[in-house]
Structure formats: C-alpha cells, structure tokens
Amino acid sequence: xxxxxxxxxxxxxxxxxxxxxxxxxxxxxxxxxxxxxxxxxxxxxxxxxxxxxxxxxxxxxxxxxxxxxxxxxxxxxxxxxxxxxxxxxxxxxxxxxxxxxxxxxxxxxxxxxxxxxxxxxxxxxxxxxxxxxxxxxxxxxxxxxxxxxxxxxxxxxxxxxxxxxxxxxxxxxxxxxxxxxxxxxxxxxxxxxxxxxxxxxxxxxxxxxxxxxxxxxxxxxxxxxxxxxxxxxxxxxxxxxxxxxxxxxxxxxxxxxxxxxxxxxxxxxxxxxxxxxxxxxxxxxxxxxxxxxxxxxxxxxxxxxxxxxxxxxxxxxxxxxxxxxxxxxxxxxxxxxxxxxxxxxxxxxxxxxxxxxxxxxxxxxxxxxxxxxxxxxxxxxxxxxxxxxxxxxxxxxxxxxxxxxxxxxxxxxxxxxxxxxxx
Length: 423
Ligand code: GDP
Ligand code: IMO
Ligand code: MG
What we know:
This protein has twelve helices and 20 strands. The chain has helices at residues 16-23, 76-86, 93-96, 108-121, 133-141, 156-173, 182-196, 204-213, 246-252, 285-293, 312-322, 391-404; strands at 3-8, 29-32, 41-45, 48-52, 65-68, 73-74, 97-100, 104-105, 200-202, 218-221, 259-267, 270-272, 306-308, 310-311, 326-330, 340-349, 352-354, 366-374, 408-412, 420-422. The protein starts with a strand and ends with a strand. The structure holds guanosine-5'-diphosphate (GDP), 6-O-phosphoryl inosine monophosphate (IMO) and magnesium ion (MG). The site of magnesium ion (MG) has 6 residues, from loops.
C-alpha cells in the first residue's frame, strides 16, 4: 500500500493540522516527517481547540497510530507539555504514539544557541520561533546530535554533557548576551526525558515497511511550508529541514516510488510569520482585515502573521517542486465581504514580466502583477455542500485550478472539522 503525503505550499500555517484531523478516519497511520516544535497545528472539534507541536494531528482518532518520524526534532520539554495537555482525553498514548529512535533531540542549549544566533544577527534575524530548530539540525548534519535511541544507552548522559559543554563555549562566542540558568533548564529537561522514555521507541523505517506490506494506509504529515524549505524556500529566511515532498522520503524512510497522492494545502490568500521577502504582502486595510477575520496569530509564538493576496507564481512553484496531485484551499470564508480580490499571476523582475519564482524575490527586485476578480458577500461558514458555494467563489476556484493545473478537492470554510467541503 502506498503512502499519501500532505504538505503546506506557502509559508506554513495553511491549516495542515485541521485537514490531517479530517482525513485521519481514512488512514491507519499518521506520520510526521520533519520539523519540530516550531510547528503549531490547530484542530477544532466539539467546540474545543487543540494546538499540537510535535505530536501528529491524528492523535484524537481511535483508529490511527501516530508516528513521530526520524526527520523530526523533538524537545522533550515541549513534548511533555503536549502529553500533559492530552491527559484529559484518555488516549492510550503508549499504544497510539510511536517515536522513531532516529529522531534527534533538542537540548536546552540548542534553544540558547538559537537565541544567541538570532540576537547576534540584529535586523537580519530570521524571526525563528527560538525552539532550537536550526542548531539541532546543524548538529544532525554535523554528526554531533543526540538521538532518541541514544536514551537507551548507558552512556547517554556523558554524550549529553560533552555536547552541552561544546554548546556553552559556542554561546560565549556569539556577540550577544543571553541570560540563562542552566541548572533550572537541565532539571526540567531530565524530568521531561524521563517521561519521553515511557513512550514506545521504534525503528520506524522498518515499522513503515512492514505496515506497507500489510496493506496499511499511511498519511505523512508535513510541517511548515514549501517556501520555508531549506533548499527551495526563501533562503536564508527559511527553516532548517526539507519541508517539500522529498522530506517525507528522508524523514520516514519511505521510497519515492511508494508515494501516491500528494495533497498540497494553501490558504485562499497568503500569510507569513517571521522575517523574509513576501511579494504580495499588504500594509493596508485589506491586509488588516485578513489578519483580523482570519485570526492570523502564530499558533506557536502568538506573533501576528503578515497577510497578503494569493501569489500564484509562488504557489505554482510549490506545486511543481512537490508534484502535487490534489489541492486543498483553506480559509475561503476569510475573504467573504471583499468587493474585489487580487491574485498575483506574474512578477516584473529586472524589467521583464516572468511567471516563475526567481532566485531573489526581495521587494526591490519584484513587482507583483495582479489579476482582479469579483469577491463574494455570502458567509461561507455554515455551508456544507459544494453546490452552496457562491458563483464568484466558484469562478475564483476554477481560475486557480486552471492556472495551477491541479484540481482543488477540498474547500475549507472555517476552523472546525465539520466546516470542510469536498468537491
Ligand atoms: P497549520 O500549521 O498548517 O496546521 O495551521 P495553523 O493551525 O498554524 O493555522 C491555521 C489557523 O487557521 C488555525 O487557527 C485554524 O484553526 C484556522 N483554520 C483552518 N482552516 C480554516 C478555515 O477554513 N477558515 C478559518 N476561518 N480558519 C481556519
Ligand atoms: P507550521 O507547521 C509558520 C518560520 C518562523 C521563521 C522561520 C524559521 O505551524 O506551519 P525556525 O523556528 O524553524 O528556525 O524558524 O520559519 N516557521 C513557521 N512559520 N508556520 C510554521 O510551522 C513555522 N515553523 C517555522 O516564523 O520565520
Ligand atoms: Mg501552524
């Protein structure tokens, strides 16, 4: 049985958590393949809102095993908090939640290094979530990292101490003053590691291989978005993992030939949190309306998200890099009430009109060209059938399908599980 893949096509926060939760009833296994607690995936059902950071978004369903893959980086402290939040749901966590032995651990000093690096950059800072993501992936590729499987070794604390000492000398190297109390951080960390060790650690690539042989259905859950990819994103204002489709292969040990559907998820407009170029960003009342109606605040950091019109140049690029087979459009309801909508279909770049994403999309190099479309007034949030969608929204959707050459199969009209329309 093949593996389906769901990933964000913009700068993250497209609504991946919501859709994974909606799709979980059709899958036996939900597997996160990259990122870590920089992610904030929101699910809403039965009048409650849940935010998950490291735990896959299928955790609330009885039918599914949730796997944290080798490509993920885990902060035991945040992981423990997530588990604490789940306690009231009476879930069989030992059975339902499996952790890859090859996943790397975020140490307290990784977080400090993230803070020191950002502070030393001044205005050029990435706008990191400060969860230690960059430094942990640096230790992974530098072959210094500590993995979940190491916690089963007798000498893991020695390995920890030697990496911590190295980090401390690196923090001193940065030209930035970081206040911290290592004793407190370590007490919290070791208590959380103890909790992590009560969970089930597995050789996840073997587990997934056997699951496929046994015809189990598997959905790989991405974090962040394609424009934050370490290679294909707006570097250096990106995260440190492969957020695109290839990341599911390296982050789970799944062969490329085993990937079946690639679900690409995008907002009907665009948002970005943190620094970096954003060609269609709005600084006017329209942008403020999107932020207010869409409640655009980071699920992990609470920072306001920057808002702007849909950028088809960037979206086309993401569709191609990932080989998207089906699209899902989120937050169409937020655009209700706009008289006119704009969609960016090309850029003026170095005096010429282009329709692909060039190397450099800094504002001084790019002028977006917009197509204007008629808005719709109807409130979409109570709609349940495609036949109820207003005509101008259908025109908007059909225009996007034509430009992107991929069908839009799901239209989301609100944060709740039930506010999901299939086309
Ligand atoms: P993720 O990181 O991709 O899982 O997305 P986030 O959870 O960070 O951000 C998406 C936000 O939009 C969350 O607050 C969701 O509850 C909310 N959301 C998801 N889909 C919709 C939708 O169709 N309409 C509205 N209004 N909100 C939505
Ligand atoms: P989900 O999975 C939106 C952004 C940060 C920053 C940059 C680097 O919820 O969509 P990092 O902490 O990774 O070093 O930050 O990436 N970023 C996200 N933006 N959604 C996310 O995840 C993000 N994860 C990281 O704001 O600009
Ligand atoms: Mg998010």
